[in-house]
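The aim of this short unit is practical: by the end, you should be able to scan a pair of folded records and say something sensible about each. We start with the first protein, listed as its amino acid sequence and then its structure tokens.
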Amino acid sequence: MTLKNIKKFVAKAGLITSIGLLNTSLCMAETSVWKVSKGEDQVYIGGTVHILPASEFPLPAEFLTAYQATDTIVLETQLPDPTDTSFQAKLMQQVSYTNDQKLSDKLSDETFKQLETHLAAFGINVNEMNGFKPGFIVMMMAMLEAKRAQLAGEGVDAYFNKLAAKDNKGKEYLESSDFQINLIANMGHGNEEELMRSSIAQMGEFKEMFNKLLPAWRTGDSDTLVELVIDKVKDEDPDTFKKMFTERNQNWIPLIEKMFNDNDKEFVLVGVGHLVGENNVLALLEKSGYQVTKL
């Protein structure tokens, strides 16, 4: 796979900042869709998977129930059009090193050799990737593994993005695309060796992990989701966990609270990892006095 093809592949797949990651009141959930209520008003919140094979469609009925009951969908960020060359250029600029820096300068010889071996299995020359930051490399490896395991496909976010366009429903976003690009570009900064080494190791378990993740997502199995997503990131890279989950969860709360003060009914769709574990979005809303119930 050439560098040009890699860029097209990543652009087509879009931004993946969470594949994907307990409040005890949520442990018995049988779905990944919840209704958050304040008096007579409510907002629906659904946990998504950003990569979803075709075999997982149709989606659980609760997703369509929430969608049909609302006027507007709210996504993490605007999904990029694969033909948007300006976005692709901005992404490539942000995830590339400058001033003659290289990824190999940030990694031990052993870890860089492991990366070389891993990428070679996909026909990728590691030297072509040496100018990219680790967040981009990790994102690309995850997409390649999903494709190899025949698990790649349109995610829940993309599905509802297209459906809302077809139905002329409103769309809103919790974050800008610039924010998510910066999140990827700065992932593992100062901790490149540990991030890359753990990521390469996890890729060997990708298919097994993802095949466990999908049924856990469908049924809202919080315990399994925490084990597969939250615990791994939190234990191996606390700084990345803080930036990817804790801080973003907290940033989203005031935005969601504002939805209770307008005339629209919203269906918020975020990575399911943001809805489980300590200080997840639902738990934070409960602490603020909102009633959270499974759909």
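Turning to the second protein, read its sequence before its tokens, just as you did above.
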Amino acid sequence: MDLLNNRSRVSEFVLLGLSTSQEIQIFFFAVFFLVYVAIIVGNLLIVISVILDNHLHSPMYFFLANLSFFDLCLSSAATPKVISDLLRKRKTISWWGCMTQMFFMHFFGGAEMSLLIAMAIDRYVAICKPLHYKTVMSPKALIVFLLLSWAIGLIHTTSQMVFTVGLPFCGPNVVDSFFCDLPLVMKLACTDTYVLELLVVVNSGLLSLVCFILLLPSYAVMLVTIWHHSSSASSKALSTVSAHITVVILFFGPAIFIYAFPFNSYSVAKFLSVFYSIITPLLNPIVYTLRNQEMKAAIKRLSSQHVGSWLTH
């Protein structure tokens, strides 16, 4: 009962944001707004193209469409609030709003991490075990991989949030960030959070680091296999794998730094948080569309069909 009373003393958190300068905040507002629109358009375009174009009905594009969906959700967990706060002098978020934001950030972050591993497995089988590809990456296997991603995302966020929600917040309520970030919010609790801080390091930081380290050898094997085959098919495979490696580094790099070393270097962590939550969801569709001829062709077909049907009407 005391915990509930203590917790209720803090009904909202104050976010310090990215800058105190009004001019810089207006600049960030314009940039973040345009970036968020590009995230929605770019990722939706990939999802719609994969659904409507028969040429893209393969495991690789199935995963890509789901990655784009996760990117949409991950960026939408915090970015709209961040954008609207840039026009406010006092940036606040309710207690429940803060908890909800952290829940969905880690839910879709954990799900995306799992999906990137599934995508690496898909490419590994396609390049290193091509004769077994259709058997291993069957429609049933794809659904299992996707459900596992959702399940891991849910377990990942619930295992942290179930303890965070129960923390007593009765004093300081200022978060030195532009959204509710788990390590920073935990620090504000009116109790010793050392054990929970270790849980965050293990659950988010160490997990990201281990997954990243496990992915590197698989991509190294793929690159060596491609190197031994000089053909147009291997050149296409190299383009696909290099796109995958780029996305994996962009996703895991900031996550490892923020959560494996979460209680130091706040200014650097703040910059990486922008990268992780806003820039990466934009770069993913750019990387996959610019380096993928089939995706570019599908988008052209989709746009020409709709422009054609619009002109005939």
